[in-house]
Design goal:
Elements: H1 5-29, H2 33-66, E1 70-79, E2 84-91, E3 96-102, E4 105-115, H3 117-121, E5 127-136, H4 140-145, E6 150-152, H5 161-167, E7 175-186, E8 191-198, E9 201-206
Antiparallel strand pairs: 1-2, 1-8, 2-3, 4-5, 4-7, 5-6, 8-9
Helix pairs in contact: 1-2
């Protein structure tokens, strides 16, 4: 199990502070006022250092949470007739969907809801929802003249958190950004790709056979 080095520093500073406060109490009991004051002062410094180290640890933990990648889906590509391919999606919730797309690249976009760092610290994670998938052409002329295929991946629902975060003011202090993110990649027949989501957007990686 990984132990953050800052927690070792926190424990050290805190134990030193406790020991010094103990010595200060004994000094006061023996009516050594100056000795008690000096030990209390030094103990307070170590206690403050412990608090500062604790805040740094929390800040570091929050930063890691913000850069966490979540596996959102995998997609398997099958070649069809020239200029067409089949994309078989397997989503993290266990659902699957196959789509016939035109082009030589896969394009995917999603809605991202990013919380403020202090919201991450209390357990809020970056939220995402796939929005659209499309076929894309590497050549701009083909993109302008070729067949376009675009499909919605958005799930119908009565309550939409993305809409609620804009509608209700009490959620606004927690929301850092709400935006769309898209990614595309060249696809090859009989190859699989992994789609990850981070707070900075989508990432598509080719998987090794």
């Amino acid at each position: 199990m990984y132990l953050d080095p800052l927690w070792i520093i926190i424990a050290f500073f805190f134990l030193v502070a406790v020991v010094l406060f103990g010595f200060a109490g004994r000094a006061f009991q023996r009516k050594r006022i100056m000795g008690g004051i000096s030990r209390s002062f030094i103990g307070t410094i170590f206690l403050l250092l412990s608090v500062i180290a604790g805040l740094l640890s929390l800040a570091s933990w929050g930063y890691k949470a913000l850069t966490l990648e979540q596996i959102a889906a995998t997609v398997e590509i099958q070649s069809l007739e020239p200029g067409w391919f089949l994309a078989n999606f397997h989503f993290s919730d266990g659902s699957s969907q196959g789509l016939r797309l035109a082009g030589d690249q896969l394009y995917l976009d999603a809605k991202i809801l990013k919380w403020h760092p202090y919201a991450n610290l209390i357990g809020f994670k970056t939220l995402y929802e796939f929005d659209r998938v499309a076929g894309r052409y590497r050549n701009i002329d083909d993109e302008q003249k070729g067949k376009r295929t675009v499909f919605s991946l958005e799930a119908p629902r009565k309550l939409d958190l993305f809409d609620l975060s804009q509608k209700y003011s009490f959620l606004q202090p927690l929301v850092d950004a709400q935006y769309g993110s898209g990614a595309f990649i060249d696809v090859s027949a009989n190859k699989s790709y992994q789609i990850n989501v981070t707070t900075s957007g989508l990432i598509i990686r080719a998987l090794e056979p």
